[in-house]
Amino acid sequence: MYKFAWMKPAFGRAAGLFGAWARLGMAVMVGAVALPGPQAHAQTEPEAPQRISCAAVSAATCTVAKSLKRGVNFGGMLEAPKEGQWGATVMPAYMDVAGAHFQTVRLPVRWSNHAAVTEDGLIDEVFARRVDFIVDTLLMKGLYVILDFHHHTQMVGSKLHTGEYAVEERLLEKRFLNMWRQIEGRYRYRSPKLIFEILNEPYGKQTPARWNALAAKVVSIIRVHNPQRTVIVGVPYIGLSAAYDELVMPNDPHLIMGAHSYDPFDFTHQWVPNAVTCCSPDQRAQMVANLDKMAAWSVRTGYPVHLGEFGAIENAPLDARAAYARIMRDGAEARGMGWAYWDFVTTFAVYPKAANNWLEPIRAALLD
Ligand code: BGC
Known about the structure:
Structural class: alpha/beta
Order of helices and strands: HHEHEHEHHEHEEHHEHEH
Number of helices: 11
Radius of gyration: 19 Å
Bound molecules: beta-D-glucopyranose
Strand order of the largest sheet: 1-2-3-4-5-6-7-8
Distance between the termini: 42 Å
Strand content: 5-15%
Helix content: 25-40%
Largest sheet: 8 strands, parallel, barrel
């Protein structure tokens, strides 16, 4: 089931495409995709939607959750197998712009491709210093930084990206934990505005049972030197709302749940332009329903939720992308949820690399 994504024709950027098909596969698996049948009825958004809860977390983590507010993903940069391989690097100007306009940067880092293939997973010091520099620059600008362990493809059982090296299967989990030992030790003295995210979009081999166990192990490793640092725990099945109930949060009061939302998927992920636009009443209802599920999960469990990824690809019509961004941003904020738009300068950009400037309608939708 997970593998059907690999059989799709190759178009678009391999990794993004792969992620997209994997997401769709997961959606079908957990029954989250609307299969042909009666049309869902459009709903109007309640005037006062349910807001996220902090009942199960410390006051400090609650403050962090409420302070994350508006954020952006530095996608396609340290996310690539090597920085620059996907055409984007973290430029000082990007950090300036982010610092001036957002409260949070989510920094996807592909640690696994910068570490020894042996069980110790010794992280390359040159790469780690590059990450230090970016993290510290962003922190100095007063931003919250979500340091996200992104794209360890073997951990989820997907195909290696071009330029990504393989690790012996039997070493994978121990090596992953050893990388976390190094990361948590390295950043132990950083400000509480630095947040760790255990693994982006667990799915595939990370079945809910495995993921719940792994997340608990990573949290206990992080607690060795970071007893109170806020940690984001993602949802199994790539963060789909239908899977929230399968997530068992580790027993720890400094956690936030990390949800992603890319519905309507045929609109947000048109790697080949398909003329799907946004946002009809039914599409809007789908988007709002996801946000409502996040808030309802939070109220039920007492853990706050962060919307760590949402966004629409550059192939979609610009006015529709802006309408989509506005609904998601308003909807997250109405529920008291911090959000991070995917992404800053690459395929879903609000500040496209080629223009080296804002894409005004999306900027306005997110920030005005
Ligand atoms: C993936 C990216 C992809 C994006 C949108 C992210 O989680 O890491 O490669 O472009 O989602 O699908």
